[in-house]
Design brief:
The structure is a homodimer of 379-residue chains.
Chain A lengths: L1 H13 L25 E2 L5 E6 L6 E5 H4 L6 E2 L1 E2 L4 E6 L5 E9 L2 E3 L7 E2 L6 E6 L16 E9 L4 E9 L12 E5 L15 H10 L7 E4 L9 H23 L9 E6 L1 H9 L9 E5 L8 H7 L1 H4 L2 H7 L2 E7 L6 H13 L5 E5 L5 H12 L5
Parallel strand pairs in A: 13-14, 13-15, 15-16, 16-17, 17-18
Antiparallel strand pairs in A: 1-2, 2-6, 3-4, 3-7, 5-6, 7-8, 7-10, 9-10, 11-12, 12-14
Helix pairs in contact in A: 3-10, 4-5
Chain lengths: 379, 379
């Protein structure tokens, strides 16, 4: 029966009558594994993951729910068709990154088009819908644009891209807007915040609820093509100050005084933020450090580089509107540095806000931090 | 030795001294497979693909070079570290989509951040640089923006996204521009043309060489959430006419007469183009059909639906500036339909251009077709 169907399809194909390309592919393919559905989000917030891997000996799935302390990794079990599956959860409604590991090979879900892009950190994503993630989901509210723009970097002598969020009203008038520079972490690029980071959606929802002022958000590429550690951070600082900011101020209707400029970054981007903002208190009135900080042994170096920030705390406190630090309680890598940073600011009498959340070093936390921090800006 | 190094790293980590998150990850990881490099493009245009899969029995790589008739799929060989590799080519300089198959499981390259997104068709991409791909590469010329915008679809009762290319000068004046609606194929979404399709770069390069007029290019999402075959095509036609075009004409500075409106699509999008444009000759003066066409047995149906187009060929020929059909000689699925479409137009005395290229049903051809077709628009 199956062979007869195949033969029939082949004859039709030879007649040019089955151009699958001309219509969306749907349903009944005879290719093994073609009809596997993954992920499947169940009404009770559990998620079933499936992958066709008839020759594999071991398949597991892990994702942000594990790092965030909301669940455990899962071992998949194989059925007699070679399809592996496992059901995880229920999970708190959110967007979760995940990957399969098939016999030791990290694999995105071949059936899932929702991809977290990244430099060496590609994974699949699943949305578990619900009240807890309404702040970051695609709502029927006015939406701003996320624009991909290219500029020539004089620092790196190459073309570089940035993503720029403009608020819904941007093209309907001639107003100038405050500008918020938002930096990603290691392994990501300028696409991170507007894709897995859901930045545009978070801002659209906040704007619609009148919880923030309209602003332009600039998401540059913080991964440097050369240099490591502090060398790369200094290179990025130059890129930001000498190329990104001048390009933005020339091409977008943004305000150019410090009271209308914010900077924040996550992880590596938090390190970049701490390298740039306190060394240049004349540039940014708002500073956000997400899941990052100054390591204990770098305290002296940080204080030295931030002399302009610490020499007159009273003046600094008048100039700085917000210095916000957020970190997860389970973020063993970043938590001590974040606390040390707060300690340094305290010792110098500089005002700050310290926010310790649940969970670890995850996009789940970073989306929440953006949601919290954005509401403090440009008041 | 290896264990001692690991222990040392663990102690440092416990001291908070190795927060890899705070700096870009580079070089010497002890994780097996961590330092595998893939793809590696060699100076002679050969490409080495590598993947760490110590437990796999069989690994192969295939990509657009195969479908385009420029090379063969490769079987990888395993070294004693569990790293599989093969060198392919030399390849004609171009962007190539590819995937590994690891023991029957389709796998993107875990070491490659350049991803072709897609609904069920995710793959990795590699750029082989050279003269032949200069038209589609990221050149140091003025770049337009690709904007991601969201609108509420009354036809589908959901939020939908479109990508809109605006030329470099767009935000510096108040001019209105001709508008080109560009449709993707099955398995892709509104991201297709601006990512794997390189649309923005192709237009930037053409503009810089003064080979085209500045224009706005609108790339909607042609994949429908319901319906199959012609039902889905009619649903998309409504989406385009009732939602996408009114949204674009309200939110972007585009000209709204037929002489300044073009439509083109590839594969499924070519089918959508043939469903919309000849039925509405009052809307589009420029029509492009890439790797698609009317199947023989659908000829009568097409003629009936396109009555407005065929009833007065002399009038149609005055109205239509360009009707362009392109298809690959090896594209067994689409080639007969494309030729049949040309035959129908010829039989009715309607002018058209037919361009048969080398190769098959590939993004390689579609990027070239866009490059050719765009130069004919709005003259």
């Amino acid at each position: 029966m199956r062979n007869r169907k195949k033969l029939c399809l082949m004859i039709l194909a030879a007649m040019g009558a089955v151009p699958s390309f001309a219509q969306p592919r749907r349903g009944g393919s005879t290719e093994p594994g073609a009809n596997v559905r993954s992920p499947e989000v169940l009404p009770d917030h559990r998620v079933t993951f499936r992958i066709y891997a008839p020759k594999a000996a071991e398949v597991s799935v892990s994702g942000d729910w594990v790092t965030q302390g909301r669940g455990t990794a899962g071992k998949l079990e194989k059925d007699d068709q070679g399809v592996w599956s496992v059901t995880i959860g229920p999970l708190v409604p959110d967007f979760y990154n995940y990957t399969f590991t098939v016999d030791g090979v990290r694999t995105v879900d071949p059936k899932n088009g929702l991809i977290k892009p990244g430099n060496n950190s590609t994974s699949s994503m699943v949305e578990v819908p619900g009240d807890e993630e309404a702040f970051e989901s695609t709502q029927p509210v006015p939406h701003g644009e996320v624009r991909i723009a290219w500029y020539h970097s004089s620092v790196l002598d190459t073309m570089r891209s940035i993503r720029v969020y403009t608020p819904p009203e941007y093209d309907r008038g001639s107003a100038r807007y405050p500008v918020f520079y938002l930096l990603h972490g290691s392994g990501d690029d300028d696409a991170g915040w507007s894709t897995v980071g859901r930045a545009g959606f978070i801002l659209d929802n906040l704007l619609s609820a009148k919880k923030i002022k309209p602003m332009v958000v600039v998401m540059p590429n913080g991964s440097m093509p050369r240099g490591s550690g502090t060398e790369a951070q200094d290179l990025f600082a130059r890129e930001l100050l000498e190329n990104v900011m001048p390009y933005v101020e020339k091409h977008y209707r943004v305000l150019t005084d410090r009271d209308h400029r914010a900077l924040a970054g996550l992880s590596m981007g938090g390190g970049q933020t701490l390298r740039v903002a306190p060394a240049h208190p004349e540039l940014f009135a708002y500073v956000g450090v997400f899941s990052s900080g100054v390591r204990q042994e770098m305290t002296g170096d940080f204080e030295k580089r931030s002399a302009a920030f610490f020499e007159n705390p009273e003046k600094t406190n008048k100039m700085m509107k917000v210095f916000w630090i957020g970190v997860g309680e389970k973020d063993q890598g970043a938590n001590p540095g974040a606390k040390n940073t707060a300690q340094i600011l305290k010792a110098h009498g500089v005002k700050y806000e310290f926010h310790e959340s649940e969970g670890g070093h995850t996009w789940i936390n970073w989306r929440h931090y953006l949601n919290d921090y954005a509401q403090l800006l440009f008041r």
